[in-house]
Amino acid sequence: MRFVIIGGGPAGNQAATHAARLGVDVTLIERDIVGGAANLWDCLPSKAMIATGGAMSYQRRISGMGVVGAEGTIDLELLRQRIRKITDHLEHTNVKILESQGVELVWGTARLADATTVIASTTEGERRFDADAILISTGSRPRVPDWATLDGDRILCTRDAYPPKVLPDHLVVIGSGVTGVEFVHLFSSLGCEVTLIVSRQQVLPQKDPEVAAVLEADFSRRGVRLLKGARAVTAERTDHGVVVRCDDGRLVSGSHALLAIGSIPNSEGLGLERVGIEVDGGGYISVNRHCQTNVPHIFAAGDISGKLPLSSVAHMQGRQVADYVVGGHSVSHRHPNYDSAPSAIFTEPEIADVGLAEADAFAEGRKIRVTKVPFAASARALIDNDSRGFVKIITDPATGIVLGGSIVGQNASELISVLAVAVTGHLRVADIVESMLVHPTLSEALAEAAE
Questions:
Q1: Of the residues 216, 243, 300, 355, which has the fewest C-beta atoms closer than 10 A?
Q2: Pairing state between β 193-198 and 170-174
Q3: Statement: residue 334 has pLDDT above 80
Q4: Closest CA to 19 of 187, 168, 133, 147
Q5: What distance in Å separates the CA atoms of residue 212 and residue 377, rounded to the nearest whole number?
Q6: Domain range holding 38?
Q7: Is the pLDDT score of 173 beyond 70?
Q8: Which pTM does this prediction carry?
């Protein structure tokens, strides 16, 4: 069995290591970085900077804990070195694991010559690989609209901001989805003035309004300006900074502008049309529940599959593809359940959710039970001097089975794992209530909400 993988992000990397353990002859072709550009050049650097901003926020908060001390200052070069050290370490670890399992790692740009042949353009020339199965996992990149021209100096995409050349005096963030609000939190924590352009009437338009309201209240407390009901249509550099024009005529001036308006798949130049692989209008490869394309032995996973753009989802897809390549229909019962995938937003407070959303249940006319406990009732939250947010659990009133939930507050990204296990395992709220949780911890709020 010859398995060729194009793209070494979370999906490709996981598929390669898992298939190699199962005895498959695996070749992985990667052009940029093993571990994924969206992961190691976007996700993890942003979280590293958020951690730095969080440390500064904590310093400002500890006065209420009986500690008196000077606030820290940011050294951008040290921060840049820290981020580079993290990404280099993780890529090195990924490469060593692949090598230890006998995966052939090829550095180059790949394309399909036909349905069973992959061509890799490397620094040493072209190499040809015959394949019994092929996985395309080339990921995505930040979307840049036609009306903006990036210069890496004043008008930035996300990958220009880890960190930027200088710390902005006034950052205008365009885009109020997950990435946008994380950058608002990040740079406001670092002491920058921030304006967020919100095209709708709330930040995080796809999230629970109650969740969005908590975040908006925190932004207001920080002095963040929210420009609601406005869609950016131009971003131009001036002698002193940038000016962003909105579709309603409003103008926002700042020292820098940051585009955080989604991503697009890396599907061009792969030779998909040559093989007849179907893509949708956005350039994403169409797949079935096994991540198969319309060409059965060719798979697509990760961001390019058009499913949830999460590393956890890509890992799961990659493992599933490897199982299917080895076992075929014998493992057909294993397929990703995207409805039960947890997600998190690393703002302050953090936001995390999983499973059925309250608004979606009401829209469907579905009967649910919603229970909510504020962290203000948590001993640990009071000890940590941060009682913002709440735990909300959604259950089936007839069976008590956990259908979903959301958490707003410190460590929400960690706490949501409990609800994710409950949703995936079809557990009842009684199972959470009857679990003995450590006291005093934030997790006790989960048991209280369940009870």
A1: 243
A2: parallel
A3: no
A4: 133
A5: 21
A6: 2-141+264-338
A7: yes
A8: 0.90
